[in-house]
Design a protein that fits this description.
The chain is α/β, with parallel strands linked by helices. It has six helices and five strands; from the N terminus they run αββαααβαβαβ. α5 runs parallel beside α6. It starts with 5 loop residues before the first helix and ends with a strand. The model has no long low-confidence stretch (mean pLDDT 93).
């Protein structure tokens, strides 16, 4: 058996993190890595202490909101947001870190990634958000589509 590369290793862990998601529409996982060490993890779901969408239903689905629009109309946080918040809650600097995520970040997460000082993003599945692409390119964030 061949050992996985570091990128394969971290993407595999990211997929396991996604299994904790409580979103009814999409399970997304994210991890922040620096110097081959995992700094924080996150998955998409409701804020801590609040009922999960799996318990109360999906606001977006019930209102027929298309994927990729009106991000504010959702009980949940994105996986990238939760990973960044997890690091902040524990006083862990993520400046210079790499984000591994099962999905390409939306524009809201992209702005957080830029301001957090994350320098590289590996993602597996695409997410059509031209403004996110433009802002990440302008900020010189290296975007790598991971192909297993």
């Amino acid at each position: 058996m061949e050992r996985p590369s570091w990128d394969e290793y971290f993407m595999t862990i990211t997929k396991v993190v996604a299994t904790r998601s409580t979103c009814l529409r999409r399970h997304v996982g994210a991890i922040l890595v620096k110097d081959k060490r995992i700094l924080a993890t996150g998955y998409n779901g409701a804020p801590a202490g609040l009922k999960h969408c799996s318990e109360v239903g999906c606001l977006r689905q019930n209102a027929s909101i298309p994927s990729g629009t009106r991000h504010e109309l959702c009980r949940g946080l994105h996986a990238e947001q939760n990973a960044i918040i997890q690091a902040a809650n524990h006083g862990i600097s993520i400046r210079g870190a790499t984000l591994y995520c099962t999905n390409k970040p939306c524009v809201i997460c992209s702005k957080m990634i830029i301001n957090a000082g994350i320098t590289r993003v590996y993602y597996e599945e695409g997410y059509n958000d031209p403004l996110a692409d433009q802002m990440l390119a302008e900020a010189h964030i290296e975007m790598v589509r991971f192909h297993p």
